[in-house]
Amino acid sequence: MQGNDTELDKTIIEAIKDPLTHIVRNAADHGIELPEQRVANGKPAEGCLTLRAYHEGGQVNIEIADDGAGIDPERLKQKAVEKGLVAAEHAARMGEREALNLIFLPGFSTAAAVTNISGRGVGMDVVKTNIEKIGGAVDLSSRVGRGTTLKIKIPLTLAIIPALIVTCQRDRYAIPQVNLVELVRREPRDGEHGIELIHGAPVYRLRGDLLPLVYFREALGYPVTDRGHHASPLTIVVLHADDRTFGLVVDGVNDTEEIVVKPLGQQVKGIAEFAGATIMGDGRVALILDVLGLAQRAQVVSEVREGARRESRSVAATDAQDKQTLLVCSLGANRRAAIPLSSVSRLEEFATGDVESAGPYDVVQYRGKILPLLPLSNALGAHGTLATGQKLQVVVYSERGRSVGLVVDRVLDIVEEAVTLDRATTREGLLGAAIIQQRVTDVLDMATVVHNAAPWLLDADACAEVAA
What we know:
Helices cover about 25% and strands about 40% of the residues. By secondary structure, it is α+β, with helices and mostly antiparallel strands. The strands form five sheets. Strands 1, 6, 7, 14, 15 and 16 form a six-stranded mixed beta sheet that branches.
């Protein structure tokens, strides 16, 4: 049994108790073969019946799977024709899925005799009817010789779920814990919380990754006047939906509770931001957020992703009049380099005393891993060494889970400018030169620079060959 902590309302459990019992009986009686037959078929003598429950897509899913003989669609057709449930011509035209669904016809059974394990005369049609009475659905899949899986889907509006209760404009809202990643609270420093704007979309830099933000007040239609500038602490609920992560800025967090989900009324059923409602302990109603619907309505994920794509395209495109966000740094007294901000994972500062050696590289211990250090001057083909007697300013570049630290003399600024690339000066690793802040500056193609300087640092296969 898996997912024992998945909870349903007591009345729903009562409604599905008998159907579940019948399905388990069927799996043991009709599905799992006798030990001798299983061994002859190359299976373990002992059969396995798995009962699994989990939340997914706004529903509670219950799966009953066995590793038995499976259901032969041709045998089902034959039995249905013999019992007069379908015409022979109709059975001949049936596909595999339609044939499997014959098992749900009233009066249908493949058992040669009733045993003390079997359904005792209760057919799968009764199982399906009882599940559909509570708004659920039954789906059957089977492979001959491999086993059968029967999945029951019950709407989440009939379930008990753990939820985080948050407040906005003095109203309470429930966020399903299945969508919750973490809570972040930021105290203001000089009125700032580290919130940045990329193409007008607010983002927060969380452990090196840009986290798109949704202001809950704004999503509810209230005006937001302090976007990016807050005098009070900021509470961010980090949420995950459909393989996407974003932050929801709320007024406050109350507590976690187990709530019974109630369906929304017809008048508000079409609002994408809400999946249902619940009645709190004090008798007041709290709306339950549909996290995916909220993200889609706010368009925050697609907006930031499209902004990053535009930023990347603008650096490489011949039309250099689009604005670009660039990190500007110095490499010696007379050389400056600009790095597209989308290529920068983090900016770090290390004491020179923290630098160690591993093989041919200088390295530092970084977030529980070893970070190789390369002077950016060396990566661009000029001679350079790590500075001594001062702190090292490092631009961290990451790819496929591996990182390299590129040491610069000094990080000067982050600018957003419309630059014109001069491609006459272009060579491998450079997109060209541009005038940025009244100075001639090389604009770098970071992926090419790093791969040319030390390809094995980011290539796992090459790294393994070097270690060998």
